[in-house]
Amino acid sequence: MSAPEAPAAAVPTGPEPGRAGQEPDTAAERLARAALTRILEPGDEHGGRWIARYGASGLLRILRAPTYEEGTLTGVGPDRISGYRRRAAAADPERDLAAVAEAGGRFVVPADPEWPSQLDDLGDARPVGLWLRGRPHLRMWALRSVAVVGARACTPYGTHMAATLGAGLAERGWVVVSGAAYGIDGAAHRGALGAGGGTAAVLACGVDTGYPRGHLGLLRRIAEQGLVVGELPPGSHPTPSRFVLRNRVIAALTRGTVVVEAAHRSGSLATARAAQRLGRAVMGVPGPATSGLSDGVHELLRGGAELVTDAPEVVELVGEMGELAPCRRGPVLPRDLLPPGTARVLEAIPAGRPVRPPELALAAATSTDEVIGRLYELHSLGFVERHGDDWRLATPADDPRPLSGSTRRGGP
Hints:
Layout: H1 27-39, H2 45-64, H3 78-90, H4 93-102, E1 105-108, E2 130-133, H5 138-142, E3 145-149, H6 156-171, E4 175-178, H7 184-194, E5 199-203, H8 216-225, E6 227-230, H9 240-253, E7 256-259, H10 268-277, E8 281-284, H11 295-302, E9 306-307, H12 311-318, H13 340-348, H14 357-364, H15 368-380, E10 384-387, E11 390-393
Parallel strand pairs: 3-4, 3-7, 4-5, 5-6, 7-8, 8-9
Antiparallel strand pairs: 1-2, 2-6, 10-11
Helix pairs in contact: 1-2, 1-3, 1-4, 6-7, 6-12, 7-8, 9-10, 13-14, 13-15, 14-15
């Protein structure tokens, strides 16, 4: 008679944590998650499912066990499992936690009050944990944050728009989130810093690594005034795939994403697409139709993204009820303020020759007496001149200058 099969409980399962706020806040779980950030690549959905089933501690025990029972971790082949196990053997979470503490940082896990619950919208692809540098409370900041992203090789127009948006959002109490890359990202961060506001940089490397090298000074300023965020443990270096996966965190962390300049293959479009999948607001700043760096933005706009040109328009889309952008209209000219009947008589006066009231009444479709009354009103306002029984337009016929105080953003 054959021996009975080992019960399923022989495989370490640990808790089935689910989502934020349901996970055991233990030192072992925190240490295991720190180790798993060095074992699993960002966005690894297989790893996310395993953590949901076994818990972080249980998954780490499986990967570090002397022998591995085939079929325990499903969804990947034996070579992949072997790679995970080699990484697990080399992981030293105590060293990583000490390194981030020495850099003035910390490690945040889903059980922590500081964990932004909107990251749970990523499902199995949510971060295992987040490494942070900076004093602000990440969850509180994320509640009122906007991503501003775009091309690295941007134009002066793009730099100006990104910096202006960053400053305008910061002045209105919004946190500007970007990736600290050259071009649009850096301009958005600098705009927010220059306005004395909050900004957060989400990196595709360790928060102590400082990439790109040319932005070391900028990253120091962000760490002092804002937050530097990353999924990867200290000392980790970026790779092309990590940049793309980093973008999903930017999209999930914020209320909406603004793309300033982007070509068709720009990585910032991946952030916008991730935001669309998550149900976040997606916005684009239009550029010249002749600029290849605006092609991707224009494609987003054609696909349903919202067109924005300044911070108030962004806040109207991502803010609370009543946070509306000001009314937009052109300059108000004096003739715009005329009553309809008077304006109709003015429009009926021919340019370059005099006219008499009966002829004008026919052109304006009204009575002669009505026309005479309107003409005297227009004369007092300087629109027409009288020469005997004839009337003609004054010179100049109309004052093209807007009334004092009128602007593009509103009326007088």
